[in-house]
Amino acid sequence: MNEITNGNHHSGIVEYINKKIQEAYDRGEIVETPFAKFHFQYLSDPRLPETEPVFQALKVVQLPDIIIRETKAVMDDLRIKPPVNVRTRIPTPEDDAHINRFKGISGKCISETEYLYFIDPTNTHLIETIKTWEAKAVVHHEMNHIARRQAHRKGKTLLDGFISEGLAVYYERHWGGYIPKTEYRGELTEQQVKEEWQKAQQELFSKKYQYEEWFHGKNQIHPPSMGYIIGSEIIEQYMKKHPKIPMSKLVRMSSRKILSKSGFT
Fold first, then answer.
1. Residue-wise DSSP of 101-122
2. What are the C-alpha distances in Å from 260 to residues 64, 190, 235, 253, 255?
3. Gap between the Cα atoms of 222 and 18, Å rounded
4. Parallel, antiparallel, or unpaired for β 36-40 and 30-32?
5. Within 13 Å of residue 31, how many CA atoms lie on the same side as its CB?
6. 161 burial class (0-12, 13-18, 19+ CB within 10 angstroms)?
7. 83-120: per-residue pLDDT in tens?
8. Which terminus has fewer CB within 10 Å in the chain: N or C?
9. How far apart are CA 222 and CA 212, in angstroms?
10. Rounded distance, CA 118 to CA 140, Å?
11. pLDDT digits (tens, 9 = 90+) for 38-93
């Protein structure tokens, strides 16, 4: 009798789970394509009820369509092996460091087959940002990381970090023919970048460098985003010398070779 009861209970749980999954498909929270599976988790997040104006605004700007379209385009361009998983969600406190305060969006590559796309509905810039090229740039940046991971070129040294982020920054800023007029380094001078580059020499090939200090400005040891800036300068210089190389090839090149051929000093 207990076995029958337990069997019915298990069957009921499975039926409930399948029902919830089907509901997620029906409301567009899960979208499957031949090349990727998309999870638009913000659509059922209690922190963003459907009655909120920002929820309706997100429907108008068609964020899911942007993410699906750009993911496919980049997969073709960078020859990324399918399938990939893409999760679009509201950040948790643990994710908070990845959100750009001025844009309300960001991303994080977590494996060679998956990236996260963060949106912050409390950010007043969110909807306007999604209307610009930067909504696409998140996809381009994180998918570039996926391509490099699939090529087993992610690496673990500080130089690997510079090159990985530099490639992603360059790609997001040049994909589709769009090239921002401003330098990625912002208000930092060329001399300041070179000074930070000199500081990096002592741990350039170390696997024990402090990522948060170099790339997110933790402890104010380096200017904010310094790792991204140095990386983008290396790639910019490389591309000036080798303008015809496609990103699909460059993203699969070793960090040492890219640095050597860039002439960056």
1. TTTSEEEEEEETTEEEEEE-TT
2. 40, 20, 11, 11, 9
3. 50
4. antiparallel
5. 18
6. buried
7. 999 999 999 988 866 677 779 999 999 999 999 999 99
8. N
9. 10
10. 14
11. 999 999 999 999 999 999 999 999 999 999 999 999 999 999 999 999 999 999 98
How far apart (Å, rounded) are the C-alpha atoms in residues 173 and 168?
Answer: 9
Question: SS3 for 251?
Answer: coil
Per-domain boundaries in the chain: 13-150, 158-262
For 257, how many CA atoms within 13 A lie in the half-sphere containing its CB?
8
Going from the C-alpha of 61 to that of each of 80, 129, 130, 144, 250, the distances in angstroms are: 27, 10, 7, 24, 33
Q: Please list, in sequence order, all residues whose beta carbon lies within 8 angstroms of the beta carbon of residue 200, skipping any fewer than 6 positions away.
A: 158, 162, 214, 230
Cβ-proximal residues to 87 (8 Å cutoff; 6+ apart), any chain: 38, 39, 41, 114, 115, 116, 117
| CA–CA separation, 89 and 120 (whole Å) | 8
Q: Any residues with CB less than 8 A from the CB of 82 and at least 6 apart, and which? A: 34, 35, 36, 75
How much of the chain exceeds pLDDT 90, in percent? 75
Length of the chain: 265
pTM over 0.70: yes
Q: Say whether 84 sits in a helix, a strand or coil.
A: strand
